[in-house]
Amino acid sequence: MVVLLVLGLVPSLAAAQFNWEIISQKNYNMAKISGIWYSIFMASDNMTRIEENGDLRVFMRNINPLKNGSLKFDFFFMVHGECVAVTMVCEKTENYGEFTVAYEGENRVLLTETDYRMYITFYMQNIKNGTKTHVLALYGRLPVLSSSYLERFVNICKKYRLNAQNIIDLTNKDVCF
Ligand SMILES: *[C@@H]1O[C@H](CO)[C@@H](O)[C@H](O)[C@H]1NC(C)=O
Ligand SMILES: *[C@@H]1O[C@H](CO)[C@@H](O)[C@H](O)[C@H]1NC(C)=O
Ligand SMILES: *[C@@H]1O[C@H](CO)[C@@H](O)[C@H](O)[C@H]1NC(C)=O
Q1: What is the pLDDT of residue 159?
Q2: CB of 70 shorter than 6 A to ligand 2
Q3: Over the stretch 8-64, which tens digit does the pLDDT of each residue have?
Q4: Probe ligand 3: pick from 49, 129, 131, max atoms within 8 Å of CB?
Q5: Which one of the ligands is nearest to 65 CA?
Q6: C-beta separation of 164 from 156 below 8 A
Q7: What is the CA(88)–ligand 1 centre distance, in A?
Q8: Where in the sequence is the signal peptide annotated (predicted)?
Q9: Atom from ligand 2 closest to the CA of residue 89
Q10: 2-169 architecture in CATH?
Q11: Closest C-alpha residue for ligand 2 atom 13
Protein backbone atom coordinates (compact mmCIF):
# COMPACT_ATOMS: atom_id res chain seq x y z
CA MET A 1 0.00 0.00 0.00
CA VAL A 2 2.75 2.41 0.97
CA VAL A 3 4.70 1.46 -2.15
CA LEU A 4 1.70 2.20 -4.36
CA LEU A 5 1.24 5.59 -2.75
CA VAL A 6 4.90 6.49 -3.26
CA LEU A 7 4.86 5.38 -6.89
CA GLY A 8 1.77 7.48 -7.41
CA LEU A 9 3.62 10.56 -6.12
CA VAL A 10 6.80 10.22 -8.14
CA PRO A 11 5.61 11.45 -11.57
CA SER A 12 4.10 14.63 -10.14
CA LEU A 13 7.20 15.45 -8.09
CA ALA A 14 9.59 14.66 -10.95
CA ALA A 15 7.63 17.11 -13.09
CA ALA A 16 8.08 19.80 -10.41
CA GLN A 17 9.96 22.80 -11.77
CA PHE A 18 12.87 24.59 -10.23
CA ASN A 19 11.42 27.38 -8.08
CA TRP A 20 13.42 30.53 -7.35
CA GLU A 21 11.35 31.58 -4.40
CA ILE A 22 12.17 28.69 -2.13
CA ILE A 23 15.92 28.31 -2.46
CA SER A 24 18.38 28.92 0.38
CA GLN A 25 21.94 30.02 -0.33
CA LYS A 26 22.94 30.71 3.27
CA ASN A 27 21.68 30.37 6.86
CA TYR A 28 20.79 26.79 6.08
CA ASN A 29 18.55 24.76 8.31
CA MET A 30 20.88 21.75 8.36
CA ALA A 31 18.29 19.44 9.91
CA LYS A 32 16.14 19.92 6.82
CA ILE A 33 18.80 18.62 4.43
CA SER A 34 18.85 15.30 6.24
CA GLY A 35 17.79 12.16 4.40
CA ILE A 36 17.83 10.56 0.98
CA TRP A 37 19.61 12.22 -1.96
CA TYR A 38 20.52 10.81 -5.38
CA SER A 39 23.32 11.98 -7.69
CA ILE A 40 21.81 13.81 -10.68
CA PHE A 41 24.55 16.05 -12.15
CA MET A 42 28.26 16.47 -11.55
CA ALA A 43 30.80 18.82 -13.11
CA SER A 44 34.56 19.08 -12.82
CA ASP A 45 37.56 20.78 -14.41
CA ASN A 46 39.07 17.30 -14.67
CA MET A 47 36.54 15.04 -16.36
CA THR A 48 38.70 11.94 -15.78
CA ARG A 49 37.75 12.10 -12.12
CA ILE A 50 33.96 12.06 -12.64
CA GLU A 51 33.65 9.96 -15.78
CA GLU A 52 33.38 6.17 -15.62
CA ASN A 53 35.97 4.76 -13.20
CA GLY A 54 36.71 8.25 -11.88
CA ASP A 55 37.55 8.37 -8.18
CA LEU A 56 35.10 11.25 -7.55
CA ARG A 57 32.16 9.77 -9.49
CA VAL A 58 29.87 8.95 -6.57
CA PHE A 59 26.30 7.79 -6.31
CA MET A 60 24.81 9.53 -3.29
CA ARG A 61 22.34 7.86 -0.97
CA ASN A 62 22.05 9.79 2.29
CA ILE A 63 23.28 13.02 3.81
CA ASN A 64 22.95 13.49 7.56
CA PRO A 65 24.05 16.36 9.78
CA LEU A 66 25.50 15.01 13.05
CA LYS A 67 25.05 16.47 16.55
CA ASN A 68 28.64 17.75 16.66
CA GLY A 69 28.19 19.76 13.47
CA SER A 70 29.86 17.25 11.15
CA LEU A 71 28.10 16.19 7.94
CA LYS A 72 27.86 12.51 7.04
CA PHE A 73 27.60 11.37 3.41
CA ASP A 74 26.70 7.80 2.47
CA PHE A 75 27.34 6.91 -1.16
CA PHE A 76 28.52 4.23 -3.55
CA PHE A 77 31.28 4.30 -6.06
CA MET A 78 32.46 1.73 -8.58
CA VAL A 79 35.76 -0.09 -8.29
CA HIS A 80 36.49 -2.61 -11.08
CA GLY A 81 32.77 -2.96 -11.78
CA GLU A 82 31.87 -3.50 -8.10
CA CYS A 83 29.73 -1.12 -6.03
CA VAL A 84 31.56 -0.07 -2.89
CA ALA A 85 29.60 1.60 -0.07
CA VAL A 86 31.38 4.55 1.52
CA THR A 87 30.54 6.63 4.59
CA MET A 88 32.37 9.94 4.66
CA VAL A 89 32.20 12.29 7.66
CA CYS A 90 33.09 15.91 6.87
CA GLU A 91 34.17 18.10 9.78
CA LYS A 92 32.63 21.53 10.18
CA THR A 93 34.77 24.64 9.81
CA GLU A 94 34.38 28.16 11.21
CA ASN A 95 32.39 28.98 8.05
CA TYR A 96 28.77 27.85 8.25
CA GLY A 97 27.91 25.36 5.51
CA GLU A 98 31.58 24.61 4.86
CA PHE A 99 33.31 21.35 5.75
CA THR A 100 36.62 19.58 5.31
CA VAL A 101 37.39 15.91 4.74
CA ALA A 102 40.23 13.67 3.64
CA TYR A 103 38.88 11.56 0.77
CA GLU A 104 40.94 10.90 -2.36
CA GLY A 105 43.06 13.81 -1.15
CA GLU A 106 42.15 16.85 0.94
CA ASN A 107 38.76 18.44 0.37
CA ARG A 108 36.89 21.59 1.17
CA VAL A 109 33.15 20.95 0.79
CA LEU A 110 30.68 23.82 0.53
CA LEU A 111 26.89 23.61 0.54
CA THR A 112 26.02 26.14 -2.17
CA GLU A 113 22.22 26.01 -2.30
CA THR A 114 19.14 23.92 -1.66
CA ASP A 115 15.36 24.05 -1.56
CA TYR A 116 15.46 21.08 0.91
CA ARG A 117 12.50 19.50 -0.89
CA MET A 118 13.90 18.64 -4.35
CA TYR A 119 17.59 19.43 -4.80
CA ILE A 120 20.85 20.38 -3.11
CA THR A 121 24.17 21.49 -4.60
CA PHE A 122 27.70 21.22 -3.26
CA TYR A 123 31.00 22.65 -4.40
CA MET A 124 34.13 20.70 -3.60
CA GLN A 125 37.76 21.63 -3.96
CA ASN A 126 40.00 18.57 -3.96
CA ILE A 127 43.76 18.64 -3.60
CA LYS A 128 45.37 15.34 -4.46
CA ASN A 129 49.08 14.95 -4.85
CA GLY A 130 49.47 18.71 -5.20
CA THR A 131 46.82 19.05 -7.95
CA LYS A 132 43.73 21.13 -7.31
CA THR A 133 40.42 19.97 -8.84
CA HIS A 134 37.01 21.67 -8.67
CA VAL A 135 33.89 19.53 -8.50
CA LEU A 136 30.23 20.52 -8.37
CA ALA A 137 27.34 18.18 -7.69
CA LEU A 138 23.58 18.40 -7.73
CA TYR A 139 21.68 15.76 -5.78
CA GLY A 140 17.93 15.18 -5.95
CA ARG A 141 15.40 13.82 -3.49
CA LEU A 142 14.28 11.66 -6.42
CA PRO A 143 16.49 9.73 -8.87
CA VAL A 144 15.16 11.83 -11.79
CA LEU A 145 14.57 15.61 -11.93
CA SER A 146 13.05 17.84 -14.60
CA SER A 147 15.36 19.69 -17.02
CA SER A 148 14.82 23.00 -15.20
CA TYR A 149 17.31 21.74 -12.60
CA LEU A 150 19.93 21.26 -15.32
CA GLU A 151 19.50 24.91 -16.33
CA ARG A 152 20.00 25.90 -12.71
CA PHE A 153 23.10 23.70 -12.44
CA VAL A 154 24.61 25.20 -15.61
CA ASN A 155 24.29 28.63 -13.97
CA ILE A 156 25.90 27.46 -10.74
CA CYS A 157 28.75 25.88 -12.72
CA LYS A 158 29.36 29.20 -14.51
CA LYS A 159 29.92 30.87 -11.14
CA TYR A 160 32.72 28.37 -10.57
CA ARG A 161 34.04 28.84 -14.13
CA LEU A 162 32.92 25.43 -15.36
CA ASN A 163 31.17 25.13 -18.73
CA ALA A 164 28.22 23.01 -19.79
CA GLN A 165 30.64 20.56 -21.44
CA ASN A 166 32.13 19.88 -17.99
CA ILE A 167 28.76 18.52 -16.81
CA ILE A 168 27.80 14.86 -16.73
CA ASP A 169 24.29 13.51 -16.17
CA LEU A 170 24.21 10.60 -13.72
CA THR A 171 20.47 10.02 -14.07
CA ASN A 172 19.89 6.29 -14.67
CA LYS A 173 23.65 5.59 -14.48
CA ASP A 174 23.45 4.25 -10.95
CA VAL A 175 23.92 0.48 -11.12
CA CYS A 176 24.31 0.23 -7.32
CA PHE A 177 20.58 0.62 -6.66
C1 LIG B 1 43.02 14.51 -14.01
O2 LIG B 1 42.84 13.39 -13.18
C3 LIG B 1 43.62 12.28 -13.54
C4 LIG B 1 43.20 11.12 -12.64
O5 LIG B 1 43.36 11.44 -11.30
C6 LIG B 1 45.09 12.63 -13.43
O7 LIG B 1 45.88 11.53 -13.81
C8 LIG B 1 45.41 13.82 -14.32
O9 LIG B 1 46.73 14.24 -14.12
C10 LIG B 1 44.47 14.98 -13.99
N11 LIG B 1 44.64 16.04 -14.95
C12 LIG B 1 44.82 17.30 -14.58
C13 LIG B 1 44.94 18.29 -15.70
O14 LIG B 1 44.92 17.63 -13.42
C1 LIG C 1 31.57 14.08 15.05
O2 LIG C 1 30.93 12.83 15.20
C3 LIG C 1 31.28 11.87 14.22
C4 LIG C 1 30.43 10.63 14.45
O5 LIG C 1 30.41 10.25 15.78
C6 LIG C 1 32.78 11.57 14.30
O7 LIG C 1 33.14 10.64 13.29
C8 LIG C 1 33.55 12.87 14.08
O9 LIG C 1 34.93 12.64 14.22
C10 LIG C 1 33.10 13.91 15.09
N11 LIG C 1 33.76 15.17 14.80
C12 LIG C 1 34.32 15.93 15.72
C13 LIG C 1 34.97 17.18 15.26
O14 LIG C 1 34.32 15.63 16.91
C1 LIG D 1 52.33 12.65 -7.54
O2 LIG D 1 53.02 13.69 -8.19
C3 LIG D 1 54.37 13.39 -8.47
C4 LIG D 1 55.04 14.64 -9.02
O5 LIG D 1 54.18 15.35 -9.88
C6 LIG D 1 54.42 12.20 -9.45
O7 LIG D 1 55.78 11.84 -9.72
C8 LIG D 1 53.72 11.00 -8.81
O9 LIG D 1 53.64 9.92 -9.73
C10 LIG D 1 52.31 11.39 -8.40
N11 LIG D 1 51.68 10.30 -7.66
C12 LIG D 1 50.47 9.87 -7.91
C13 LIG D 1 49.97 8.77 -7.04
O14 LIG D 1 49.75 10.36 -8.79
Answers
A1: 95
A2: yes
A3: 444 455 567 777 777 888 889 999 999 999 999 999 999 999 999 899 999 999 999
A4: 129
A5: 2
A6: no
A7: 22
A8: 1-16
A9: 7
A10: Beta Barrel (2.40)
A11: 91
> Which of 76, 55, 77 minimizes the C-alpha distance to 135?
55
Task: Quote the CA–CA distance of 156 and 110 in Å, as a whole number.
Answer: 13
Distance 68 CA to ligand 2 centre (A): 6
DSSP states of the chain: -HHHHHHHHHHHHHTPPP-GGG-BSSS--GGGG-EE-EEEEEEES-GGGTSTT-TT--EEEEEEE-TTS-EEEEEEEEETTEEEEEEEEEEE-SSTTEEEEESSSEEEEEEEEE-SSSEEEEEEEEEETTEEEEEEEEEESSS---THHHHHHHHHHHHTT--GGGEEE-TT--TT-
Model pTM above 0.70: yes
More confident residue, 168 or 6: 168
Q: What is the mean predicted confidence (pLDDT) over 83-97?
A: 96
Determine if ligand 2 sits within 6 Å of the CB of residue 88. no
